[in-house]
Amino acid sequence: MPPIKKMLLAAAAISLAFAGQAMAHAHLKTAVPAADTTVKAAPSELDLTFSEGLNLKFSGVKITGPNKAAVKTGEAMLMDKDATLMVPVTDKLTPGKYTVEWHALSTDGHKTNGTYSFTITP
Questions:
Q1: Range of the domain at 90
Q2: pLDDT digits (tens, 9 = 90+) for 21-72
Q3: What is the rounded distance in angstroms from the CA atom of residue 43 to the CA atom of residue 90?
Q4: Closest alpha carbon to 92 in 117, 116, 114, 66
């Protein structure tokens, strides 16, 4: 095999290996309330569904509301084959914009994090 073909095959193999690793991370697929939406009623819980199962001990959310005030939450739990993180909201939410900062550790040990917002109307 010519050296250039060997190099191209090696590059392709390395690219596939890294692509497989990137796909192994737990990516946020859906959230309720959804990102960048406006809801009329304050949610009693957040449901964040990921592309794979999570390790509950190292996954969670921080919610901040209007004026950057922290929102109290209850104890998170996993549902749907450990791919959905359910977080009870124990504070009374008032109208305004809320930011959800999440962090997740997939069951295979990969960490991910992100942020999204939703708004509650009066």
A1: 26-120
A2: 445 689 999 999 999 999 999 999 999 999 999 999 999 999 999 989 999 9
A3: 10
A4: 66
> Is 100 contained in some domain?
yes
CATH classification at residue 75: 2.60.40.1220
Give the global pTM. 0.79
| Number of domains making up the chain | 1
Burial class (CB in 10 A: 0-12, 13-18, 19+), 44: exposed
* β-pair partners for 77: 86
Contact criterion met (CB below 8 Å) for 75 and 88: yes
